[in-house]
Design brief:
about 375 residues; Rossmann fold; 15 helices; about 40% helix; globular
Length: about 375
């Protein structure tokens, strides 16, 4: 298993000149990765520990330590000013790695006084290439069953996963949400969270959710935005092309923990979405490309699950099938009407064949072909 999660060498390089911010879902392994850079516990300061909090607020940092990890410091209301002061004062003697469970990029938006002083990375749950250099089928099965968060994946126990998942959602709603927003209707937000796994892979209807929860559409939209900020879920937008009547306002929703999704086909699609989103974030965070993950759907209901876009140009499209089916007619339809150069239809079987710029192949082979991180 790759213990540095694929980001360590990039972070190590950036720490020589700037601060590094490391964001991502709760329990995705940020603290473990951050601690892999330190040699003594004195280099690790957690805002949630009162003793560490006192040292941080009093600016009692030891410049001989070379590196300081600041965990959850964004919970401090004046954290930007604090971090800016640390960097400006100690930039010639100390490197700073800043981590947080809530979305650090949310807190840094708008009049960012830290601009130019840091690089930002997003740590995702495990992907196939991180944990198995041989890309074995049984590893894929484990990811599908237990998700990519390190603890349940490594434990591989269904009872443990169910308890872990319940506790994680509770912490997201009752701890992380409290630090980010003032939401009074937490019981209704819990109902929304309970309903989202069944919405994965289909066009998301805000109106249907509004009717179920008996709240306004604006409230539902705001709650979903909050859940995205807390790394519970994410949405992708449609891809348009001149020769197709693409839907424009629809979007699709996926979960960071795809193991919550009961339907096998939707769960597989969610796992692929997360793999592709990780690929996009990796290229953005390490190489500076502008990446997007979208889907294709026209007004007649034809659809291909995903399109990966780099600097506004499509790189490839992906259709997910749990079985080894023939090439989807929707792929051929969009191939003839878009400028997408490559199409993949990935599945959980063994077939691997090509028809022009369309390739049908196993998930494990796809991860090798497109060098997924």
């Amino acid at each position: 298993m790759n213990s540095d999660r694929g980001l360590k060498k990039y972070i190590e390089t950036d720490l020589k000149t700037k601060m590094v911010f490391l964001g991502g879902p709760r329990q995705s392994g940020k603290t473990t990765l951050a601690k892999s850079f330190i040699k003594t516990e004195r280099q690790y300061l957690n805002w949630d520990f009162l003793e560490d909090r006192s040292l941080i607020k009093q600016h009692k940092l030891d410049p001989t330590l070379k590196l300081i990890v600041l965990d959850e410091v964004h919970k401090y209301v004046r954290w930007r000013t604090l971090i800016k002061g640390f960097f400006d004062k100690y930039k010639n003697s100390l490197s700073f790695l800043v981590t947080g469970s809530a979305r650090l990029d949310h807190f840094r938006k708008g009049g960012d006084s830290l601009q130019g002083r840091y690089h930002y990375y997003r740590l995702h749950p495990f992907s196939l290439g991180e944990i198995d250099s041989n890309f074995k089928r049984e590893t894929t099965s484990g990811l599908l069953q237990f998700g990519g968060f390190p603890e349940p994946f490594l434990t591989k126990d269904e009872t443990f996963y169910r308890r872990w998942q319940k506790e994680r959602v509770a912490k997201v709603i009752y701890e992380d949400l409290r630090d980010l927003e003032n939401v009074k209707e937490l019981s209704l937000l819990e109902l929304l969270v309970d309903s989202l796994p069944s919405k994965v892979g289909s066009p998301l209807s805000i109106n249907a959710l509004r009717e179920d929860l008996e709240v306004s559409p604006n409230t539902v939209s705001r709650w979903i935005e909050i859940l995205e900020t807390l790394y519970y879920c994410y949405r992708i937008l449609p891809f348009g092309a001149p020769k197709i009547r693409a839907v424009k306002k629809s979007n699709k929703l996926y979960l960071w923990d795809w193991a919550e999704v009961e339907n096998k086909g939707a769960r597989f699609e969610n796992m692929i979405a997360s793999q592709l989103l990780k690929y996009c974030h990796f290229l953005e965070d390490t190489q500076g490309y502008k990446m997007e993950l979208r889907f294709i759907r026209d007004t007649d209901g034809r659809e291909v699950d995903f399109v990966v876009i780099q600097n506004k140009k499509p790189l490839f499209a992906v259709e997910c099938k749990t079985g080894e089916n023939n090439i989807s007619p929707h792929i051929k339809y969009f191939r003839d009407r878009t400028n997408i150069p490559k199409f993949y239809q990935i599945h959980l079987g063994d077939k691997d064949y090509q028809d022009g710029n369309i390739r049908v192949l196993p998930f494990e082979t796809f991860c090798k072909v497109e060098t997924m991180p």
